[in-house]
Write a structure and sequence with these properties.
single chain, 382 residues, mainly alpha, 20 helices, globular
């Protein structure tokens, strides 16, 4: 009888209920909330769902992220090996190739002024950099944190890894992806506060047709120009443009379909779950994490606001030919930010179609955020 009692007792004490902390239960609740947002509200479910589930797993079973040196059998946890691909910058670069294969740069080519709106939205990154230093982070940590303002998860992971800030990668990545998912909640109040009803109702002229030759030359020219000026951007900008060349060349349809579908979704699964798995209670529930989340939100809000304000300036210069709302799409949350521009504009005038116009600043923001990351790497000699 004592043997049975002892065996049952051992089994009971091996359950997670006897090993979790209050922090673990709190993170489990956060994970469930993210799952609700992903499934019920459909806020970027392709990103938020795997991140939330990785968060859930690591707080129930921390050993799923255990380092091989800490494991009794010398074998690391499943998500530890996924996470190594993040640290090595492999998954972020592959994500960029998939984004390039899915993206039509036509709106940006047809309206080059979109580059200004995409660049303006990066102001939040640089402001957050100085704020992070003021709040006590070292210069490299501040740079890694500030890139959250671009609302670009892969670039945030890439830069944190390159700058050796792997200890902060989890909070940075979760903040970046969370703000990407929450674009429909965060951006509209800022957009409406900074624009008038008349400005939101501005209808833009149809974009000019873009030739096939222009679309083929664009990724080649951008790669040469950007990577010659900032070679450190080659892994991100190069992969983005390679994916786009797959799309626009028309001669490698199989590669384009693989990069934008099967490979892209595989990478999203690996990256999302591994990013979520960095949010153990011990690593996530601390003052530094709260600072990172706050700085990321400020950077994202400022980036949105600066894009809209430059849009207002261009609206005035062009005498009402540019709708300021498309400036908010300059953050690189593709294509969610462009959809939000369309939605806010349609609320004022259902016949107003801003989506294609907003895609110009949106894809410019992807390039702009990668350039910002490359600039920080060049500054630190990486």
């Amino acid at each position: 009888m004592s043997y049975v009692t002892e065996t049952l007792g051992n089994l009971i004490h091996q359950t997670a209920f006897f090993n979790l902390t209050v922090g673990n239960y709190l993170m489990i609740a956060v994970a469930c909330f993210f799952l609700y947002l992903a499934i019920k509200k459909e806020y970027e479910p392709l990103l938020l769902l795997p991140i939330a589930f990785g968060m859930l797993l690591v707080n129930i079973y921390p050993d799923i992220m255990i380092h091989p040196e800490d494991a009794s059998n010398g074998v690391g946890g499943l998500l530890y090996y996924f996470y190594q691909l993040d640290e090595w910058s492999i998954l972020p670069s592959l994500i960029f190739m998939g984004v390039g294969a899915m993206t039509d740069f036509g709106p940006l080519i047809a309206n080059p002024i979109s580059f200004l709106l995409g660049a303006a939205a990066q102001f939040g990154i640089y402001m957050a950099y100085f704020m992070a230093i003021f709040m006590g982070f070292n210069d490299k940590a501040a740079a890694a944190i500030s890139i959250i303002g671009g609302a670009d998860g892969p670039t945030s992971i890439f830069l944190a890894g390159k700058l050796g800030q792997t200890g902060l990668m989890g909070p940075i990545a979760v903040a970046a992806y969370s703000y990407m998912a929450l674009v429909p909640i965060i951006q509209p109040p800022i957009m409406k506060a900074l624009t008038t009803k008349k400005e939101r109702q501005v209808k833009m002229e149809n974009l000019r047709p873009v030739t096939k030759l222009e679309k083929i030359l664009f990724p080649i020219v951008v790669t040469i120009v950007v990577c010659m000026v900032l070679p450190t951007t080659a892994p991100l900008v190069g992969m983005l443009m390679l994916g786009n060349l797959f799309r626009e060349s028309g001669v490698v349809r199989q590669l384009q379909e693989t990069a934008s579908n099967a490979l892209m979704y595989i990478v999203v699964i690996l990256l999302g779950t591994s990013v979520g798995a960095t949010t153990s209670a011990e690593a996530f529930l601390n003052v530094s994490t709260l600072k990172i989340v706050a700085l990321g939100l400020i950077a994202f809000a400022v980036g949105t606001a600066s894009g809209v304000l430059i849009g207002k300036l261009l609206c005035w210069i062009t005498k009402g030919k540019i709708n300021p709302l498309i400036g908010s799409a300059g953050v690189s949350a593709v294509p969610m930010a462009a959809r939000v521009s369309q939605k806010v504009g349609a609320e004022e005038d259902p016949t107003n179609f801003l989506l294609m116009h907003a895609m110009g600043p949106n894809v410019a923001g992807v390039i702009g955020t990668a350039v910002a990351a490359g600039t920080f790497m060049a500054i630190f000699g990486i």
